[in-house]
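Input.
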Amino acid sequence: MNLYFYRGKQPNFGDELNTWMWPKLIDDVWETDDDTIFLGIGSIIFDFFPKDKKKVVFGAGYGGYTKLPELDNNWKFHFVRGKLTAKSLGIDENLGIGDAAILLRSCVKQKVDKRYKVSFMPHWESTFIGNWELACQLGSIHYIDPCAPVDDVLDQILASELVITEAMHGAIVSDALRVPWIPIQPISNAHSMKWFDWASALDIDLKPTQMVCSSLLESTVLFFDDKSPVIADKFRRRGTLLLNVAPQIFAQRAADKLLNISKNVMPSLSSDVRIESAHDQMLTKLDELIIDLGKGKVIY
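Output.
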């Protein structure tokens, strides 16, 4: 199978989990010249895959970034990220088991001492338009860079008593590894639906908290995001000078908000029963995948 995942102008934790996790779970199936596309972690159920290639969906979700694909016999759904994806695709809602990153429960066994009382992880796109690292410094909050290597991010999540996160996989991984988390409403509304998709699989009553902007650039992008996405994208690409306009003022407001959230917002965590059930179902699906492929082996 060809392992497909999204990569933007810089690698980011959620998508890079694909290259880190899957080789630790299954072996002897990864062939770049194969006609099968493997869709694991990410909002990567798109409409532009070649129709003649087989698409194996193993936990991926539909994020609304493209039109819905036209499903035929070349699509094989083992499970999807959540009930919203299943409903959008018109497939059995019971296939909405959860995000495949829950399988990290089979890969991450190390015990890590708690070093950070509160950590904050922004969405990877926010690292380019915000001053979040400065905000965390001003608030004495640990900053988790979503573009750092997977091993580093995993270690920092495990070392945190609480993770406040705008990055969806900051929440998904924290939840899977039993670290309490608080969801932040994404700066871009385009990233909101997928959160509720994942939450629906685990019966999480998701209530994202509104955050303030950490830079003038971020504030400008947010202003135009709904009114004129084209203008918002232009500022994302070319508005870096706005990062240096009163950075301390914007960052301090963001720091104060993060501290307020850490003290006054109830952290989230799915129930032990739901996360264990989702994980067990995914392990069963792994065995079924190997049988279906007629090759490979499970190695977790």
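Residues 272-293 form the longest helix (22 residues).
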